[in-house]
Amino acid sequence: MNVLTFDSNEKLNEAGANIITGLIQTNPRAVLGLATGGTPVGVYEQVVNDHKRGLVSFRGVTTFNLDEYVGLPIDHPESYHSYMNHHLFRHIDLPAAQAHIPNGNAEDPEAECRRYDELIADAGQIDLQLLGLGHNGHIGFNEPAHALIRGTHVVDLAEETLKANARFFNSIDEVPRQALTMGVGTILKAKTILLIVRGADKAEIVHRALTGPITTDCPASLLQTHPHLVVLLDQEAGRLMA
Ligand SMILES: N[C@@H]1[C@@H](O)[C@H](O)[C@@H](COP(=O)(O)O)O[C@@H]1O
């Protein structure tokens, strides 16, 4: 595991974008696993800059997002479809047919999960999986549980996750209570995992995830078993990692 701590958001964003841009420069047909939430916004901004400066083209790239809320219309401003369009897709030359996000409005969510897993399998291995970290140690929307699920599945969001994500909605009652998420098995199969964590409120959980026991109570702790894990932290999140 390679843990890097940055003293400014700019440097962290640049480092994250360099990894993504560098990968696509060496492998223009790279398969990327993408994340949402507040954490990767600045990295996407920097990737867009790289694209605008002519450093990288996404024409041959395929992307798979980690998750999507169940029942939120695709064009709702807080859907992960909207998020990805807003922060990344509409600014780059990634063909729409190569950008995949689970459909949280599928009539048959189980079938949608199987379809999503087949698409990922058809694309081969995910070269780089971007991850943020939930306050309860979740990755994607894989919440702490007695057992974790390997593939894409429907998940009931933890109370803590509803509270954390209420900041994006008018009230906690508007936060969808379920999501579709890639499973930890798929996440761990990625060639490289890039975990990004920011903020003092994540210092304890990132420390627990990366140095504590490997347990399904903290899904991110499974990342300790991954042979190519890169962790980018700001100083606040890295406070306990010295
Ligand atoms: N499903 C997402 C995760 O993919 C994200 O990494 C995490 C942290 O979010 P944030 O970056 O906003 O703190 O929780 C969200 O609910």
TrEMBL record:
Gene3D superfamilies for the chain: 3.40.50.1360
Chemical reaction(s) catalysed: alpha-D-glucosamine 6-phosphate + H2O = beta-D-fructose 6-phosphate + NH4(+)
Domain of life: Bacteria
Active-site residues (renumbered): D67, N136, H138, E143
Pathway: Amino-sugar metabolism; N-acetylneuraminate degradation; D-fructose 6-phosphate from N-acetylneuraminate: step 5/5
Glucosamine/galactosamine-6-phosphate isomerase domain boundaries: 11-226
Entry EC number(s): 3.5.99.6
GO molecular function, one term: identical protein binding
Function according to Swiss-Prot or TrEMBL: Catalyzes the reversible isomerization-deamination of glucosamine 6-phosphate (GlcN6P) to form fructose 6-phosphate (Fru6P) and ammonium ion.
HAMAP family: GlcN6P_deamin
Family affiliation: Belongs to the glucosamine/galactosamine-6-phosphate isomerase family. NagB subfamily.
Name recorded for this polypeptide: Glucosamine-6-phosphate deaminase
Lineage start: Bacteria, Bacillati, Bacillota, Bacilli, Bacillales
